[in-house]
Amino acid sequence: MLRMDCFKKLGLFDETIPWGLDYDMWIRIAEKFNFEPIQEPLVKYYYHKDQISNFPELRIKGIETLLRKHGTFFREDSKAFSQHLLDIGGLYSIMEDHEKAIVMFSRAIGIYPYGLAGYRDMAKGLSMLILGERNYTRIKWVKNILASILDGNRQKNRREK
Predict the structure, then answer these.
(1) What are 36-82's pLDDT values in tens digits?
(2) Where are the beta strands (DSSP E) in 16-140?
């Protein structure tokens, strides 16, 4: 819950942001007010097929807008900033624009080189770009089958001991 003076001082939601209006509002609140989260849920929400989160293009534009608008805020935490770039890269991967995905993964790794997720996502993006989506999926399928067989053999060996 927020006091009305928060909105009076900060204004309402920035409707020029295509995705993440609430995120923008919380950043603005955090910059001007002290607050603490509570554990008790106060609202219910549901997912539906037409919600903005289901449209990667809008999410990318929204995250990029937030990063531009609150650049200083995000750059203070290189790990979190890197995670936002990984998210954008993941969205580009969903859209099958692997070249842009790799650019975002590279930027994320450059900002926070200590996170394994960036390297994993970069490897996946490069694999898809080089092999193509269909071949990558086939290789992943074979890998999962082999892993399942190996895991079954390990469990069998443990039981025999």
Answers:
(1) 888 888 888 778 888 888 899 999 999 999 999 998 888 899 999 99
(2) none
Quick check: 4 and 46 in contact, CB under 8 A?
no
Q: pTM for this one?
A: 0.72
Give domain limits for the chain: 1-76
Residues with Cβ < 8 Å from 98, sequence gap 6 or more? 92, 125, 126, 128, 129
Length of the chain as a residue count: 161
CA-based R_g, the chain, Å: 21
Q: How far is CA 108 from CA 27, 41, 53, in A?
A: 21, 33, 21
Is there a contact between 104 and 85 (Cβ–Cβ < 8 Å)?
A: yes
* DSSP letter, residue 53: G
